[in-house]
Structures are given as C-alpha cells and as structure tokens.
Records
---
Amino acid sequence: MPKQPTRDRVDPEKINTKPLRRPEWIRVRAPMGETFEELKTLMRSKELHTVCEEAMCPNLGECWGSGTATFLMLGDVCTRSCGFCDIKHGQPDALDWKEPFRIAQAVKNMKLKHAVITSVNRDDRRDGGAPILAMVVKAIRKAQPGCSVELLIPDFKGSVEALQIVMEARPEILNHNVETVPRLFKTVQPQDQYEWAAATLTNAKKIDTEVLTKSGIMVGLGETIEEVKAVMRDQRDWDVDILTIGQYLQPSKKHLPIERYYTPDEFEELEQYGLSIGFKWVESGPLVRSSYHAAEQVRALSIVHRKLYGTN
C-alpha cells in the first residue's frame, strides 16, 4: 500500500523546544464572519482546496473575510517535504482533470477580477502537472471574462518543456517563490535547487516578455539581511518584476524553528532596497505571503485591462 501522507518535516533533534516569543507586531486575525463562512461552504461544495487552509496561512481570516482565496491545485498532497510547509507530503492521487472547471465556476460565483492559483509539486509526473495548470487559466477566462490570472507554479525541476505548456496559456502573472537564500536551500527545501528557481523565472520571461514575473522570500530562518539582498539582486538579474518578503512562522514544533523575528523597520529597509534596484512592486512585511494583496498589485501595475489571450 502507498505510504500515507504526513505533515512531519524535521528531524526530532532539530525540533524547536524553546520557541521565540512572538513580538507585538505579529498579529493574526482569527477566521470569522459571514463572507468567510460562505467561502468555506463554497470550497467544500466544489471539493476544492486552498493554500490558505493547507499551508495554515496567517492571513486566512483577512483574505477570506474579504472574499479572496488562493486555490490549491493538483491535490492536497505534495511530493516534496519542505521544512517550512504544512501541506501534507507523500504519494499523491491521480490528477483530477475536472478540477480546473470547478475552480473556474468558483471564480465565477465569487465574481473575482483576479484569481490566484497555486499547486503542490507533482514530481510523480514528467510534466509536473503543467497541462492542468494551463487548463485552469483557459477555464477561468471562459467562465469569468475579464478576470486576470496569477499562477504560482512549482519549478518543474527546471524543465523548459513543462514551463512552455503553462506559458502558452499566457497568465497575467507567473509566480515562483525562491523562498530562502542559497546557503539554506538544502535545509529549508531539501528536494529543490536554487538553479531550478532561476531557470523557471528566467525562462518564463524569455518565453513571454509581456508576462509579469513574481517571486517571494521568507525571512527568519537563519539568513542575514545581506544574503536576502543578494537573492533580490539575483531576481532582478532574472528580470523578476514583483517581490514579496514575509516573516517565516513555524506551523508546528515539527517544522523548522524560527531563528529570529525581523522588525518592521527591517522589512521597510528591504522594501526600499527592492524598489531601488528596479522591482516594479515590493510587498514586504511580517505577515506578507505570496498572494497577499495580489489583486492590488495587478491593478496598480495596470494589467487587469490587458488583452486576454484566448477563451477556449
């Protein structure tokens, strides 16, 4: 029988038994309210997953309360076991080829103007699940004309062929998170490679020069600010347009410990540095996550009204 999915990530010897005291500027709104309950009911009725729930996002209350959610595709079991993530990992089920159409219907029901779609890693497939990600872009545009789409994709192990499938659907924003600095890659995400992230973001821009590319970094895992700035310079070399920077928050004692909390002033420093080296948008703050204020980014960068390519 296949191994059951698990959320365990870190060697027991590395478990943080004395977590740092959470500072006053880390405040999370509890999920509640009529809109939150309506959205939760909608997700369950269409058998959909959201990264908001699966990854225990601290902004779930704020985003769901305002009617915004990030859809999680390709199942809820990831083939990789990153030390920061609370999504289950193990052997996933077969792909559900009707999933894109259920998501598109949910987008229509929510009357979204901007949809954010992400997925687990599917290293069990040579294409990494790229075809179904392309399908959801087309399905959303057919069900909800005028809705822009942001895809937060895996690295596909640097595969240009898989990336090409996604890019042919022409999402308005192509997002792939670097997550951490090169020195910590094997500790934070042992099955990933920095070079794969570089290839994904660089090749996306080469395939479609009009697409806005986006990436994200977590801080508080033991990196230095200078290392973060070095990664930011790398991302500009890769022609990344939008950057998000947020504080790592330990989902459980079985995950990587928080080495330190960055202060609001440090997040402001990183934001200003990012803008100074050429990012079109930098979202930097303690509770910032990849899809945080995504709709505002789209509107501010004037791409909601960009001509949408294809409706089938």
Note: Strands lie at 49-50, 70-73, 77-78, 88-89, 114-119, 148-152, 173-175, 212-219, 242-247, 281-285.
---
Amino acid sequence: MKRYILTGTSGAGKTSIIRFLENMGHCVIHEAATDIIASEQASGIIKPWDDISFIDKIVDLQKQRQLQASGELQFFDRVAFDTYALSMYLDYAPSITLLEEIKRINEEKTYEKKVFFIENLGFCKKTPIRQISYEEALRFEKIHEEVYKSYGYELVRIVPQQIEQRVNKIVNLVAGC
C-alpha cells in the first residue's frame, strides 16, 4: 500500500488537487482540520483554533480516516505532521496525542517519504474557515516545510500551474515510483 501526503500552506490548492484526484478514481482522504472547523463553527464556536483541544480533535480524525482508508494507492490532504505545523503556528506546545500519533506514523512507516509540497499560488483568499492572510500563509508554509524536513521527508515541489498540470505531475511521479 502506498500513501502519499499533499501538504502546503492554506489556500495553495491542495483541496482542489485532492478533488481532481478523487474524480479520476483515486482513493483520497480529505483534510480533517477543515471538517473540524466547519463542525465547530456550525455549533457556534467561531474560532475553534483558539482552544488547544482543537489540535487533538484534528489528530483523532486524521488517525481515524487513515485507519479506515482502503486502496493500494492513497492520497492524503494533510496528516499529523501538518497538525504539528499548525500547533507551532498557533504557539501551542505539541500535545501528547499529537506526539504519540507522529511516533506511530514513524514507527509504522505509514506514509511514503516523498511528500507533495503544494506551493502557494501567490495569494490566499480568506473564507469563514480559512481566516489567514497571505503573509501569514507564507509563514505557515515555511513551518510546514521545516516540520517535514525535520522528520526526514523529501518534499517534491508542485509549483503553481493549472490544476490539470499539477495533478498530472503528481500522478506521473507516483507512477514512476
């Protein structure tokens, strides 16, 4: 089984790429943080990231989705390393839950060491869920890069292009592995 991660900053196009891959028939696992934010906001919590328990909620959903995923080839829109980057970005100390999940991922060699780093598009559109400026997105992008490198992952840069070109690059690189 091969599990590939798509990472990068907010607004870089990861979700669009994941949806495109899904429409092509690939097994994809959608980002957990977006779903947690949407759920929390629907229950009246406008900024769920202000509560440190937000990090563990993401980790728990990511782990659940990874363990339930099926298929010989899987694409993940962010995983626990991204949640670690988010924790750093929010100035939260990494939780025990987060650190245990990263340890499990490393011990089980859950993901391929080549990670698709989706580079920013030169802007970041704010939404009710994504409330981050472009300048903040650049800082967040750098944190992602540092986290993945610190855990020994190789970042394969996917530069800004039309979505079809970005997806084709990913598919061709996976086919070559």
Note: Residues 2-175 form a domain with the Rossmann fold fold (CATH 3.40.50.300).
---
Amino acid sequence: MKKGLFLLLLSFTLLSFTSKFSGNYTYQIARMKYKGGGNWYDGKTSLPNLISFCNKNLGMNINPQEAVVEPGSAEIFNYPMVHITGNGNILFTTEEAENLRNYLIGGGFLEVNDSYGLDSAFRRELKKVFPELSLVELPFSHAIYHQKYAFATGLPKIHQHDGGRAVGYGLIYNGRLVCFYNFDADLGDGWEDHEVYNDPPELHEKALEMGANIMQYVLMGQINNVKKT
C-alpha cells in the first residue's frame, strides 16, 4: 500500500474512533478470514456475546454484528480491533503480512484466541509481519489484566486441553502492545453460548470479564493515542 493511501485510511479510522464520544459512532470489531485451511469461523456466538457483555457492563457502543475482513484488505483499517481464532493452519501472503504490519503500526490491534491447535502456525505467520519481534509473556501487573475487572494471576483457564498453564502473550512495537494472544486459555470458547460447551457459569463470566478487559484496554487506548496527536 502506498504511504499516502495508508495515512489517509488511518486518518479516517482515527477520526471514527474519537467520534464515539459524541454519540455518533458505533465501534465495530472484525473477525479475520485468513487462508491456510484453518477454521477462522470457529465460535460463531463468541464475539456477539462478548460485544453484548461490553455494551451492557462497560457502557460501550459497539456494533452487535461482527465484521469479516481479510488480512490484505484495505477495509481492515476501518476496525480498531481484529479477532483471530481457530485450531488449524493459518497463512499470510507477503502482501497480507505487509498490510497487517501497516495496520498494527498505524494503531490497529490483533486479539488472538488459540482454540487448541493454532499456536505453531500463528507464531510462524506472525514472524512474517514482524520478523524483528517475538511474543513475550505479559506480567500479571500489565494493565490489560487490570481494567474494570482484576485478574491478579493472569488469564482464566477456560478449557483444560492438555492441562497446560493459560498464558497471555503480547507483541510490543515501539512500547505499544499491538497484539494480545491468549494461549491454552481459550477465552473464545468461554464467550460462546452456554449450551455449546456447557461451561460452569463462573467460567463463562470470567471469560467474558477478561474479554471485556481486552476490549476496554484496546478501545480506550486507541482514543487516548488519538487525543495525544
């Protein structure tokens, strides 16, 4: 993407973020439709449930319908946060990786849910986007765990899978968190309708609360960054 077009798209996006405060804008969150054969569509009720929870409990004004966006599309710049989930292969072309890099450097955010099996493919493809960076485990003191809801010991573990520890990883570019990756926690399953997995109500609530923290951290961070410019 040419620099001028990128900056133009970004300026429209940032203006949209700020207009929410005048009551004229509804945020919309996008799900990424990626190549590679993985089930990018996994968890059909997860994002709608999380959005509903955020609108009710955080007073947010998020469009209840998720968008679907491809990594190489110019439309990705319309969304402050893009959700990636699945448990299979994921593949970015060179052009898609470049577009994602521009999106994240320009103020966008990736929220990534490992639905058991995405890990190796996601880490491989993320290196195409930021070859100079690596995911790091975020400390429990990180602000993402201390928004409206406090998670003093990090991510809640929703599904056991192999019994490993739930870990919250971050990708940090120039001091800013541009990607949050929940591994072996499976927050996305926890956001689903109760009858999908029959999770205990307390786990469902914890998953939604942690998801709401992510939303609050990302959306309020976008607003604060715009106000500083």
Note: The CA atoms of residues 116 and 218 lie 24 Å apart.
---
Amino acid sequence: MRLKLSHRTHYGFDSPPYYGLQQLRLTPQDTQAQTVLQWQMEVTGGKVECSYIDHNQNHVTLISFAAEATAIDVTCTGEVETTDVAGVHGAHRGLQPLWAFLQPSDLTRAGNGVRKLVAGLRDAKISDIERLHRLSARILEAVPYALGPTHAGSTAEESIETGSGVCQDHAHIFLAAARLLGYPARYVSGYLMMEDRVHQDASHAWAEAHVEGLGWVGFDVSNGISPDTRYVRVASGLDYREAAPIIGLRYGAGAERLSVDIQVQQQ
C-alpha cells in the first residue's frame, strides 16, 4: 500500500524565547515492512542545526529557534510504500543492547497493577506470540481507550489505576508487563491510516516485544492487532521519551500554544 503523509506542528509564543532547541524524530526509514519513497521536512521560525542516527537507530533532526521568532512551524510530507509482514520488524539493531530493553523506566515500572495483568500468563502452555496477544487483550479490557484522563507523563501504573487511556498508555503498560514476563520490549511511534478520517491531531504509538526466532514483533494494544500495511514506523525507544516525535527545551516566551495536524491517506 502507498501512503501519503503530512505532519504539521505549530508553536506560538507570547514573546520570542531567549533560546530554544528541539529534537525531532519525524523521519521514517526503510524497513522490511516499509520503503520511504520521498520525505521532506520544512522548518520556519528556526533552523536545522544537524541530523544524526541515535542509539536506537532513529533519525534525529536538531533544530534551534530563530532570534525574535514568535512562532515555529515544522512540516513533514512524504510517501511510504508499506508491506504486510504480520507485525514482524525483525532482528535487533542499534547501539542499545537487547538486554537494556528488559529494564524498567520511570514510565514503565511494574507495580501491583501490572502484576495482576500478567497473572498466569508466564506459566501458560502457549506460544510466545499467543502469550503476548493475550497480554494485549487483557490490557485493552482493563484500560479501555479514552481521550482525556491521562497525560504525556502518566506512568503505566497510573494509567491502570485511572482505568482508561490512549495508545501511549497502552504501549507503556504493555512494555512494563512484557518485561516482567521476560521479553525485551520497546515503544514505537509512527502513523496509522484511519478508516474513518484523514485528519488526525496526534501521531500513533504501539509496542514491540523481542521474540526468539522472530526478532521484534509489534503489538498495537489500542486496536487489538499487530501492525499491518496501514502503519508507518518512525522511531522507537525504551518509552515515549526516547521515541517522541518532538521534545526540547526553551527559555522565556511566556505561554505557549501548540497545534498539530496530521494527514494519512492511501495514495
């Protein structure tokens, strides 16, 4: 499937920041499930300082804010050809060792809520893939998808306690639970073509677990499936903070206004 994508992020400030710097993980790369046919990034109100591949094999662009800028826009457009590989991303690559993905982070530390979710799964006489799909289904049943109750800093345990969440929360819970079961697991950010709309106000997130004999395998808890041809993978990491589309810092400028417009459609 050929997908056409557009991702525009706009920041507006009450007054020009004294200083601003952002890391952008907005550039997809070729994988066995996708081929990037074209991709462009345009920045207004700032400039590209450098780009590099990080320890998770993500393409990172570093941008600074222009002097006296009261707004900054980042617009990415491109086309990606996708192939259905049943969610299998494949062998581990990158400078981050595989064992590191067994370690909890502040957002994915397992507590009583996660332990209850995995109860009985470790000893079940089933395949790794079946075990992980059952885990995914348990998470969605315990934490139905809903906008609003959680935020970007919510931990896996907090989301379970809240009782509902979004794709980021589902991914964090999956990571905490999969690691508790002994599977290296990581967070993935990217795009999903929706069946009912083209415009979206946020990118998508899912999780991957490393399964012996297959490598990394994706699980989208929010939709109860493994990624297919509607998905475009962009970045991965231990949790949201290592794979976020945009993170950064700024000094000054007072209040900030943010708007995001994403379009994903079949070409």
Note: DSSP finds five helices and 14 strands in the chain.
